[in-house]
Specification:
CATH architecture of the largest domain: 2-Layer Sandwich
Helix content: 55-70%
Distance between the termini: 33 Å
Oligomer: single chain
CATH topology of the largest domain: Zincin-like
CATH superfamily of the largest domain: Metalloproteases ("zincins"), catalytic domain
Number of strands: 4
Low-confidence stretches: 257-263
Number of helices: 10
Number of domains: 2
Mean pLDDT: 81
Length: about 280
Amino acid sequence: MIMTLFVAFVTTLFYIFGQASGYGISFVGIALIFSGVTSLASYYYSDQIILSMSNAHHIQKKDNPMLYRLVENLTIAAGMPLPKIYIINDSATNAFATGRDPEHAVICFTTGILEKLNKAELEGVVAHELSHVQNYDIRMMSIVTVLVGTVTLAADFFLRSMWFGGRDNENKGSAQGVFILIGIVLALLSPLIATLIQLAVSRKREYLADAAGVLLTRYPEGLASALEKISQDKEPLEVANNATAHLYIANPFKGKDFGNWLSSLFNTHPPMKDRVKILRSM
């Protein structure tokens, strides 16, 4: 559904951008091809794109037997296939899951989270990330990451084309002027709207993964304590960026937990104190 709506949305954007730039309906064909290819690429290759952006490397059982057994035991308890395990060499405390389904899933941990959490806390984090896999959050959020980036690129392309001038700029009629105005408004607002939707979905899925993770471990305190330690660690994750921030178990930028309602719209995660409070009420 998300991919279908995305194709329709990008096609509409390109139609308006094409009319405003003077290229007419020819942009629609380009949009259909572009959005279709992007959708398929995001479905099949978004995990590899994200892992590459994060400088993560794949590990085997011999590389970290404790972590491997921990993930293996929880996947057996959940009745899931064993995901691939990746590591990011960074002392910040964080983790994320990605992939398109449980058979093609990846769980990634920073070296910092492996060093700073005890076994019960790390088990809570692993269960949280496995819940993202089991609930297919990994598919939805990985696709959304790539698609939001595509909308942003399309808007940026249009604004740059307007700056340097499109086709028939000297003979723009009133209809094209209307399309230019609509196009500029959409180019400015569409990346913001897409990002707000992305962040809102991400926050809801974090609450769900917390609850589902506790159902797996039967020990809410493990995850609650882990989230407290993660929130107290003020070191930002260097490889994180705005496109991948919502995938992590906690805000990777640190020190950007806003208090007022308007600012909270731009948070990648729900407030940590709320998550901990809910976990300890279970």
